[in-house]
Every structure is written in structure tokens, then in C-alpha cells.
Write a structure and sequence with these properties.
Layout (H helix, E strand, L loop, with lengths): L1 H5 L3 H26 L7 H18 L3 H26 L3 H24 L4 E3 L20 H5 L4 H19 L1 H11 L1 H6 L4 H27 L2 E3 L6 H11 L4 H24 L4 H5 L1 H41 L1
């Protein structure tokens, strides 16, 4: 037990935050879509597209920030395409998402072969990783400084976006419109809310956020691209959005939980003799655990709603009898 507790170091927490960043960004996008009444399961493909075009943009423009911009724009455009096909032709969301995920996976492999002459892993010495930012004063605080300072701009942006998402969703008129569409689309349209515009916005922003998470993988955390680089992080983002109640702050904490599980698994692999194959599935067990909790929460909510409904009916019946 002491050996396990000894693993909980500032370095582990630092690694957890880095690994959580792409999950948080994808999950924030998924949460916005959930609030708008759209189940977005294409986060995996959008993240992979962002990782690929991010490093290509950084290479061809010789500027890492341009690579990030290219990734975000491409993710937004893919989100707009997703919205167009869904809203215009009423295509099944699950089928559409699976098709996009598979298409992007194979398309990135094909474009690697055509543009870069490689199908496995590609990098170039000219590509620079996004620089880490040391926060004045905070960086000098023992332990706390090691955990909070020293990340690149995408990490800090993910923190800001979680707060901004909360403010927009729960403290602005537009946020109320998003939630109204997700709760009852027909009622929202009856009071003049354009549900299609709301869902288009949610899908575009979701695509941009997932692609930003992908750019973090290829040029924010590393300076390379590999086949299927997202490696299921988009799907974990979907789980984090559900686990966090589609609430920006809850989603942020859920993303940290999954990032910690991933970092803890890596750390265990380095300091223990446990079989690597067993350790590598720990993050997936964490995902499964979260989904089970989500299912139990839904059942509990349904049960409590039935209890309240039955109590209301009994109260009404007793009142009628007394009269």
C-alpha cells in the first residue's frame, strides 16, 4: 500500500493533467452537443484529423501555432459537414459518426503515404513543440507550482474553456437556448428558438475542440504523428461528457479522472513487475466503471421520478377523498 501511495507525486499529477487535456477538450465538445440534443460520437475522427493536419500545418507553414489554427479550422469544418448531413438529410447519428471515424482513420493513412511517403510514424526535425509556459510566482511555490505551472497554451486553454463553457451554458441567454433545445426541441421551436442553428453551432464547436485536442497530441505533447494517434481518446471523451453530467466543470473533473488513470497506468508499468498487458487496460477499466456509474445514475433518477409521481398521485387521491 505504501508503494502505491508513493506513486502519488507531483510528477504523476503533472503527467495526469497533460494526458487529460485532449480528453477534456473532446469531452467539452461532446457536452455541448449533448446539451443541444445531438449525440456526437464522431469525436474520435475529429481528434485524429486535428492531430494529422496540426502537424502538417506546423511543417508546411514552419509555425506550430499555424498548425494549431489549421487543426481547429479543419475540425470546425468537419463538424459543419457532420451537421449538414445530419440536419439536411436526417441521417442516423450513430451510423454517420462511425462512417466519419472510419473514413478519417483510413484517409490519414492514405494521405501519409501520398504526402509524406510513410504509413507508420512521421516526424521532422523542423517541427517545434508548443513551448511550455512558466507562471511567474506560482512556479516558485513548492509542489503547487510543479502541478499548476509549466504547461503549453493548449492545456491552459482547456481550463479556460471549461470555465467559459459553464458561464455560457448557465449564465447567458444563448446558453439557455442550447439547453432548451436539448431538453425539448419542439417546445424550444414553439417559442421561436432556431434549433437547427443551435445544433449546427454545437457540432462546429465540438469539432473544433476535438481537433484542438488532436493538435495537442501531435504538436503540443509530441512532435510526431502515428497511425490512429487518437487511440480511443475521442471515445473516452464521449464517456467523460456523460460521466460529467454534460456540465463543463463536471466534464473537466471527469477528464482529469481519466487522465490520472492513464498516467497511473504508465507509472505502474515503469515501477512494478505487473504484466504490461494488464496495466494497459486499466484506463479502459476506468472508462467502463464510469459508464456503469452513468447507467446506475440514470436508473436511480428514473426510480426517484417514479417515486415522486406516485407520491403526488397518492396526495391528490387523499385530498379528493377528504373533500
Amino acid at each position: 500500500m505504501e508503494d502505491i501511495l508513493g506513486l502519488l507525486t507531483p510528477a504523476l499529477l503533472n503527467s495526469s493533467i497533460r494526458l487529460a487535456t485532449p480528453i477534456i477538450l473532446a469531452a467539452l465538445g461532446g457536452a455541448i452537443c449533448n446539451r443541444a440534443g445531438v449525440l456526437n460520437l464522431a469525436l474520435e475522427g475529429k481528434m485524429l484529423l486535428g492531430a494529422f493536419l496540426g502537424i502538417l500545418g506546423a511543417f508546411f507553414f514552419a509555425n506550430t501555432y499555424m498548425g494549431v489554427l489549421v487543426a481547429v479550422m479543419a475540425g470546425g469544418l468537419l463538424g459543419a459537414f457532420f451537421a449538414f448531413v445530419y440536419l439536411k438529410y436526417d441521417v442516423n447519428l450513430i451510423i454517420l459518426a462511425i462512417a466519419i471515424n472510419l473514413l478519417i482513420l483510413e484517409l490519414t493513412v492514405y494521405m501519409m503515404r501520398i504526402l509524406l511517403g510513410n504509413v507508420g510514424t512521421w516526424s521532422d526535425p523542423s517541427i517545434q513543440k508548443l513551448p511550455d509556459i512558466e507562471i511567474p510566482i506560482i512556479q516558485d511555490i513548492p509542489v503547487f507550482g510543479d502541478i499548476v505551472s509549466g504547461y503549453n497554451i493548449i492545456v491552459y486553454l482547456s481550463w479556460f474553456l471549461a470555465i467559459a463553457g459553464y458561464v455560457v451554458l448557465f449564465h447567458t441567454k444563448f446558453g439557455r437556448h442550447i439547453r432548451a433545445v436539448g431538453e425539448n426541441q419542439d417546445a424550444a421551436e414553439a417559442v421561436g428558438i432556431n434549433s437547427r442553428r443551435i445544433q449546427l453551432f454545437a457540432l462546429v464547436i465540438s469539432g473544433a475542440l476535438a481537433a484542438l485536442g488532436g493538435a495537442f497530441l501531435s504538436i503540443g505533447h509530441l512532435t510526431l504523428f502515428t497511425r490512429n494517434m487518437s487511440n480511443g481518446r475521442g471515445w473516452i471523451g464521449v464517456s467523460a461528457a456523460l460521466f460529467g453530467f454534460s456540465h463543463p466543470i463536471g466534464v473537466f473533473l471527469a477528464g482529469l479522472f481519466f487522465g490520472f488513470a492513464d498516467a497511473f497506468a504508465v507509472r505502474l508499468q515503469n515501477v512494478t513487475d505487473l504484466p504490461p498487458s494488464l496495466i494497459q487496460v486499466l484506463p479502459h477499466f476506468a472508462t467502463l466503471f464510469a459508464l456503469v456509474l452513468v447507467a446506475l445514475r440514470e436508473k436511480l433518477s428514473l426510480y426517484m421520478a417514479k417515486r415522486r409521481s406516485s407520491a403526488a398521485l397518492r396526495s391528490g387521491s387523499e385530498a379528493a377523498t377528504a373533500d
